[in-house]
Amino acid sequence: MNRQSQRSFFAFLIGLAALIFTPLSAFAQSQENSEALFTKHKDSVFLVNQSIFIDAKRIGDPDLFYKLEGAMGRRVLNQFISIAGGTGFLINKDGYLITAAHVIDYLPNDKKVQYGYYSFINYCTRYMLPGKISNMEFRKIIADYKRLLNTSEIVISVESTKGKEYRAAIVNQDDSLDLALLKIQIDEPLIPFTVKDSSSLKVGDSVITIGFPLQYTMNEFLEDFKPTVTNGIISAIRNDKWDIQHTASINSGNSGGPLLARDGAVIGVNVGTVRGANDLYFATSSNKFKDWLSSLGKKNLLTIGEGDDQ
C-alpha cells in the first residue's frame, strides 16, 4: 500500500470512528444531563390531583374509619383521595406552579363518583391486612364514603416527592391555551425552574421531560413515588395552539409538566399526544405562557433563565 493509499485508509478509519463515537458521546452527555436535571428538580415537580377530602367531621361512623386506618397502617381520615390528575412545576419560590388547564377541569358528578370510588377501593385494598376488617364493616365504610363522595366538592391538591401534600388555589386558567396557574402555601425550600425564550428553538434540538405518567396505575404496584424523566428531540415547530412537537415520551399524567432544554430551563408545557401514535407529543411554548402571565400582570413571578429578558 503506497503512502497516498495509507493516508486515505487512515482518514477513512478516523471518519468511521467519528461516526460511531459522536452519537455515543452525545447519548452519554444526554444521560448525564438528564440525571443532573432530575437530581436538581425532582422535588420541584408535583403531582397535581383533583381530590376529595375525607373530612372526619362529615363521616357517619369515624370509629370504623379509625379501625380501617389500623388495618392499613395508613391515615384515611382528613386526607385527600385523588380521583384524577397530572403534573405541575414550580416557577417561583413563593409557591406558584404552572400546569395544563385540562388537568384541573372539574369532573362531572358521575365521573367524580366513578373515579373517586375506584381510587378509594384501590387505596384500601392495596394496604389493608386480611382479617382486620370484616366484610360487613368494609361495606359500611364504603357506603359512608360514597355518601361523602356524592356531597363533596372537588379540590385541587398537589403532592411533592418529599411526601408533602398541599391544597392548591387556582389563580387563573385559560382553556384556549390549556394553561393554569396555581398557588400553594409552600413550607419547604425548593428550587424553582427557570424559564427561557423559546423563539430560538430548532428542529432537532434535544429536549427532556419530567412528570408523573400513569401515576394511578403505577401506584398499584410501586411504592417508590417519584417523577419520570424521558429524552427526545424537537420534531417540528408549529404555528398552532400546540406549537412544539417532540419525541420525549409522555403519557396520561404528564400533562402540565415541563418540557426542558438541555440546560434545564423550561421551554414548554406538555399538553398532549396523538392517541395510538408513536413519538407524536406536543407542548405549549414557554413564550406563549410567558405572554399569558404578562397579560395577567404576573410575569414577575417567573424565574427567568440566564440571558433572557426580564
Question: In words, what does this structure look like?
Answer:
The protein has 310 residues and is an alpha+beta fold. The chain has two domains: 43-167, no CATH class; 194-304, Thrombin, subunit H (Beta Barrel). Helices cover 32% and strands 26% of the residues. The strands form three sheets. The protein has a seven-stranded antiparallel sheet. A hairpin with a 4-residue loop joins strand 6 (169-174) and strand 7. Helix 3 runs antiparallel to helix 4. The longest helix has 39 residues, at 3-41. The protein is elongated, with a radius of gyration of 24 Å. It starts with a helix and ends in a 6-residue tail after the last strand.
**Structural class based on helices, strands and sheet pairing:** alpha+beta
Overall mean pLDDT stands at 83
Percent in helix: 25-40%
Number of helices: 6
Order of helices and strands: HEHEEHHEEEEEEHEEEEEHE
- Radius of gyration, taken over Cα atoms and rounded to an integer in Å: 24 Å
Biggest β-sheet: count, sense, barrel?
7 strands, antiparallel
The low-confidence runs, each spanning 5 or more residues with pLDDT under 50, are 19-30
Amount of beta strand: 25-35%
